[in-house]
Amino acid sequence: MVHLSFLSFFLSFFLSFFLSFFQSFFSFVLYFYLSLFQSFFSFFSFVLSFFLSFFLSFSPSFFSFLSFFLSFFLSVFQCFFFLLSLFFLSVFLSFLFFLSFSLSFYLSFLSFFLLLQCFFFTFLSFFLSFFSFLLSFASVFLFFLSFFLSIYLSFSVSFFFLFFLFFPFFVAFFHYLSHPLPIIYLSIYLSIYLSLSKFIQYLSIYLSNSVYFYLTHSVNFDLSIYLSIYLSIYLSILF
């Protein structure tokens, strides 16, 4: 858009300069030919008057009338031709002036419109880039928030299961000193705990796949693969 506006500006300048030069050159050439034609008529009238004055000595009455008539006719024709040439010259120069003015006005308006359009698209691209930057920042912030929340929940759940894993051992150990039968209850508790940990392991795999799907659609693909593998290994070790 900027190239088009500058191109239209230079084109308007070149056309106005060319039309002004052509107008000046054509007016000079036409004026030169008019002056030459007028000089030719003046010379022709001078020669004719000379010859008429020469023949006037032989027959004064007829040649005097003929010289007056021819000089009057040549003067009228010269004036008429000169005025007609000036009229056509003024019409042609007015047409050239109007054409140069209209072309310069059209190209100036076109350059202004293209420049305005360029500014509008520049502002729109800046706004869209700023909006995309905000969206990328929000996606990165959500990714790190989800990552740290997953780590926090993993530590919380692991601490909870470790507490419930080792607490019955201590209870059973102190209770076994007086009663050996609660070891059966401990085995039942361990089987329930292992089943529940298997369920949590499947849930962690599902969560790692969900995180992998989110990461592939929000951040870099290679980074999402490494993070999902790390999360799956980490959750498998925990549970």
From TrEMBL:
It comes from the Eukaryota. The lineage of its organism: Eukaryota, Metazoa, Spiralia, Lophotrochozoa, Mollusca. Keywords: Membrane, Transmembrane, Transmembrane helix. This is Uncharacterized protein. The chain crosses the membrane at residues 6-33, 40-59, 65-98, 105-124, 130-152, 159-177, 183-207, 219-237. It comes from Acanthosepion pharaonis (Pharaoh cuttlefish).
